[in-house]
Write a structure and sequence with these properties.
alpha/beta; Aspartate Aminotransferase, domain 1; Aspartate Aminotransferase, domain 2; seven-stranded mixed sheet; binds pyridoxal-5'-phosphate
Length: about 375
């Protein structure tokens, strides 16, 4: 442990648990401000009162004592809102991805994943029995080549899974989901899309990218999370009723864990109610305006070449080197803006970055100032 920790320090990549900074938020995933929304907070409390729920905890796994009534209500809301047959709620997006990828692809199957895919998907794949290969980021040609060269369908039962994110968590960019989906349909492959950073940001009423493109029926499974734009905690897998039943029976991160508390589930339900209300729609609209404004100011400040092209709430400014990006982040934080550096190996070496997470509640002045300060720092420190 000592040697590994020392190496991390030498690489300027030691992780510490720090107190939250009371600065302008350009870091959290609370894209719509729902985590701090008082209406959602009090409506969740009212819902619990209305239903006579007074328990503090779920008391067990969903397969034992933890499957309280609010779960069924939430899963119905999710299936209807996201236009899918079934939804299964997990304790977190990490659990959902690990549960899915460790159990659904079988020995003899193949999983092809984007090289920048989230750690939870990689971990799930590692725990499973299928062969897996990465393909170049958002590169359909590379995926096609790899599928041809690596996967020989030995039997009719061999399944091929392709997994991507509709908004990548570190780059904020998106694959061409339309092309990817038709490639999968033509070849009989199963497409899985992680929509963690697209919910609340894209699509009608923030339904996500798959909805925006009308691909609901073409995707084998979608993963959505509640800890980002919904401002709560937890996640769900959206797919067929058969998939739901399979996961209930075989996904170990679903089976062997205590269910979410009634309070957590009530908060997710109320966050969804708020999302579709006029105020919720207004928050989504404000977020989109802020994304456009941010991109505009990046251009005005001559910073385009530093930023990864992205239309999402995640805007990454590439500043290679852990020390370099760390010290620029500190300088910006000293001026009142909470912008976090993302170090390697979380991102590939040479692709270290400042990641700006934008919100509906950020003001135009905050966006202008933070980018002016960034620009000044880049002029001084290169
Ligand atoms: C793309 C992606 N998938 C899954 C997760 C995991 O979700 P959760 O934070 O709910 O565990 C995250 C968040 O870190 C993510 O960015």
């Amino acid at each position: 442990m000592k040697a590994k920790l020392l190496k991390r320090k030498e690489d300027s990549y030691i992780r510490n648990l720090a107190e939250p900074l009371d600065l302008v938020d350009f870091t959290s995933n609370d894209y719509l401000g729902f985590a701090r929304n008082k209406t959602i907070f009090s409506n969740a409390f009212e819902l619990l009162k209305e239903r006579g729920v007074t328990s503090n905890g779920a008391t067990g796994s969903r397969l034992l004592s933890g499957n309280h009534g609010l779960y069924m209500k939430l899963e119905e809301i999710l299936a209807e809102f996201h236009e899918v047959s079934s939804a299964l709620v997990f304790g977190s997006g990490y659990d959902a991805n690990v549960g899915f990828f460790s159990s659904v692809p079988q020995r003899g199957d193949f999983v092809f994943f984007d090289e920048l895919i989230h750690a939870s998907i990689r971990d799930g794949i590692k725990m499973g029995n299928a062969k897996s290969y990465k393909f170049k980021h958002n590169d359909l040609e590379d995926l096609r080549d790899r599928c041809l060269s690596k996967s020989n369908r030995s039997t009719d039962e061999t399944e091929i899974y392709i997994v991507t994110e509709s908004v990548f968590s570190m780059d904020g960019d998106s694959p061409d989901l339309r092309k990817l989906s038709s490639f999968c349909i033509q070849n009989g492959f199963n497409l899985i899309v992680d929509e963690a950073h697209a919910i609340g940001v894209f699509g009608e009423m923030g339904k996500g990218k798959v909805d925006e493109l009308g691909l609901q029926k073409e995707i084998f499974a979608r993963m959505i999370t509640f800890g980002k734009a919904l401002g709560c905690h937890g996640a769900a897998i959206l797919g067929s009723s058969e998939l739901k039943s399979y996961l209930v029976n075989f996904a170990r991160s679903f089976i062997y864990t205590t269910a979410l508390t009634p309070h957590s589930v009530a908060t997710i339900i109320e966050a969804y109610h708020y999302l579709i209300s006029p105020k919720g729609v207004n928050s989504t609209q404000k977020l989109r305006e802020n994304i456009d404004y941010f991109k505009d100011r990046v251009h005005v400040n001559g910073l385009d070449s530093f930023f990864v092209p992205s239309h999402s709430a995640i805007q990454s400014c590439i500043l290679p080197g852990n020390q370099h990006v760390g010290s620029i982040a500190k300088n910006i934080q000293h001026t009142g803006f909470d912008v976090k550096p993302i170090f390697s190996p979380t991102v590939p070496k040479g692709r270290e970055r400042l990641r700006f997470c934008l919100h509906s509640f950020n003001t135009k002045t905050e966006i202008e100032k933070s980018l002016e300060i960034l620009s000044h720092n880049l002029n001084v420190y290169g």
